[in-house]
Amino acid sequence: MQKIASELPVDLPDALWLQNHFSDYANPKAKICRLVRQGVLYRLKRGLYIKAAAKNHYVLGKAANRLYGPSYVSFVYALRWHGLIPEHVAHITSATYGKGRSKRYDTPVGSFLYHDVPARAYPHGVIFAGEGKQRFLIASAEKALCDALYRTPVVRSLKRLEQLLFEDWRLDSSAFRHLNHTQLMALAGHYKTTTLGTLVKFVTSNIS
Predict the structure, then answer these.
(1) Taking a C-beta distance cutoff of 8 angstroms, is the pair 176, 84 a contact?
(2) Which of 6, 73, 170, 175 has its CA 20 to 30 A from that of 162?
(3) Is the pLDDT of residue 208 over 60?
(4) Residues 6 or more apart from 8 whose CB is under 8 A from it?
(5) Every domain of the chain and the residues it spans
(6) At 107, is the secondary structure helix, strand, or coil?
(7) Cα–Cα distance between 65 and 163 in angstroms, integer?
(8) How far, CA to CA in Å, does 107 sit from each of 76, 94, 104, 113?
(9) How far is it, in rounded angstroms, from Cα 84 to Cα 25?
(10) Is the CB of residue 145 less than 8 Å from the CB of residue 79?
(11) Is 85 in contact with 151 (CB distance < 8 Å)?
């Protein structure tokens, strides 16, 4: 009995899984191509697909983890996820290490951007969002803030950092106060940059 394409049990099937799933077809590869043309499956990159019917924030987070890695969702997308910034974020942004350059995938379900962070900072402050098969790796709120500051031009003064956070980025001041500041300062220490050092001074001088 041939399988119903809309009932695929996997949200992010790869080519090998699909060929095995449709092995009862005379030409599984042709079947996969048909599903893409029909809009049942979207091709994210060679060998990786996403079910159109399964597209949601959790599946997109999983897709970001799988498209390019090792990686975890971070920067502005994670700041929005954790409620630190108010604006809608157009792209799903992720952190990598040791790649040497940024990477971008433009897909039918959106754009995925990847940027390096220092290898010594990479493994710290990464958590799971979602549960079970919906889980994906994302930076904690504190880690996302550190990653985002790592990619900004150098900030040396506390006044300029405050302006950057609460005026330029429109960071929610109440959400900032409720961050784990001990963890935030510990994470900042892994980057060993001027801007993250300024963040530590800012937290020390402003949070009781």
Answers:
(1) yes
(2) 73
(3) no
(4) 21, 41, 51
(5) 9-54, 57-206
(6) strand
(7) 32
(8) 19, 15, 10, 11
(9) 49
(10) yes
(11) no
H-type helices in the chain, by residue range? 15-21, 28-37, 57-67, 75-81, 141-150, 158-163, 173-177, 181-188, 194-206
What is the C-alpha to C-alpha distance for residues 41 and 32, in angstroms, rounded to an integer? 8
SS3 content of the chain, % helix, strand, coil (to 5): 45, 20, 40
Query: Tell me, what amino acid is at 3?
Result: K
For the segment 118-124, the average pLDDT, to the nearest whole number, is 98
pLDDT tens-digit readout, 54-105: 888 999 999 999 999 999 999 999 999 999 999 889 899 999 999 999 999 9
Q: Please give the share of the chain, as a percent, with pLDDT higher than 90.
A: 88
